[in-house]
């Protein structure tokens, strides 16, 4: 394909494909735009909804609420990508690592992962059983967006999930996971593999 033909094709791209084309390093007629912070404090509609539903987990794990929040910036700015409103730690309860989000403190894990026994006890993720709201939210978003933007999932990377699982909360120095990396690297690698597989299961099931 010649450059001229590629540019001709890029001029015909619609908003729903632009971000995907950019991800594939294909020619596009302008850089894609999406909003990393999703809704957040800058939208009054989100602030109002947060007052009505103060629990972050309720907002992110209730499909109707998650869809409404995800679409707020889309309706306001018409970006090229719509990000599913969710929490980075969403997969953890599905493999046996429960957490709660406390206002002004963030995620708290009452039983952080510190031993081989705990890692061995983790279970394979079954998204449709333990996280049915993920599929429901994504499917509804696809219907609502109607091809006008790329719908993006949202989840923490394995290392990010591991930091919370091991530290038990947000950390400034990540001393516990660093210590495990040096003292018990095989244990940390097993945990990271389990988390990566869980993320993969979500992606393949959607």
From TrEMBL:
Positions of transmembrane segments: none
- Which BP terms from GO are recorded? porphyrin-containing compound biosynthetic process
Database matches in Pfam families:
URO-D
What GO MF annotations does this protein's record show? uroporphyrinogen decarboxylase activity
Residues annotated as domain Uroporphyrinogen decarboxylase (URO-D)? 32-41, 152-168
**Which SUPFAM superfamilies does the record match to this protein?**
UROD/MetE-like
Q: What is this protein called?
A: Uroporphyrinogen decarboxylase (URO-D) domain-containing protein
